[in-house]
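Hi R.,

As promised on Friday, here is the backbone we talked about, encoded as structure tokens. Could you run it through your design pipeline when you get a chance and send me back a sequence?
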């Protein structure tokens, strides 16, 4: 899909704060409220805007111990991959999961309260999944950049 400058700016404004009213957006873009509404609807219908969410402050909800866990499966059989991916969807502590190339098969982003909480997660949830050969965990020291915005 091709985007003009107005679409690009509209998408940028919505990524910064999706609760802005069409009136506020219209003022920023120099358009009518109806024109902004129609552009947003077009972008939603095309699937460019996939959904609207609230981004929580991990510190305020006590989930600021972030772990990147690399997971290697025992084999790369299709049924093992599909089963792992299905099971990982049920683990609420896992906020992101990427199937990757390299020494490991997956990288998980996990948010928990602290090291004890992570240990409990590993022992009672992650390592109980079938077909995991090994894991390697890295713990976040500080967050340098964290954004959901995609610049067009």
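Update: got your reply. Pasting your designed sequence below so it's all in one thread:
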């Amino acid at each position: 899909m091709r985007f003009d400058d107005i679409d690009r700016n509209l998408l940028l404004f919505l990524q910064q704060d999706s609760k802005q009213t069409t009136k506020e957006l219209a003022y920023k873009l120099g358009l009518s409220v109806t024109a902004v509404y129609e552009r947003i609807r077009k972008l939603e219908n095309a699937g460019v805007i996939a959904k609207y969410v609230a981004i929580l402050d991990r510190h305020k909800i006590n989930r600021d111990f972030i772990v990147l866990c690399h997971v290697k499966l025992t084999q790369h059989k299709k049924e093992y991959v599909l089963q792992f991916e299905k099971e990982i969807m049920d683990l609420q502590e896992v906020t992101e999961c990427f199937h990757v190339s390299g020494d490991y098969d997956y990288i998980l982003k996990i948010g928990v309260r602290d090291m004890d909480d992570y240990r409990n997660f590993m022992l009672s949830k992650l390592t109980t999944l079938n077909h995991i050969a090994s894991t390697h965990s890295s713990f976040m020291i500080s967050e340098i950049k964290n954004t959901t915005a995609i610049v067009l």
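One thing I noticed while checking it: Strands lie at 65-73, 94-99, 106-112, 132-139.

Thanks again,
M.
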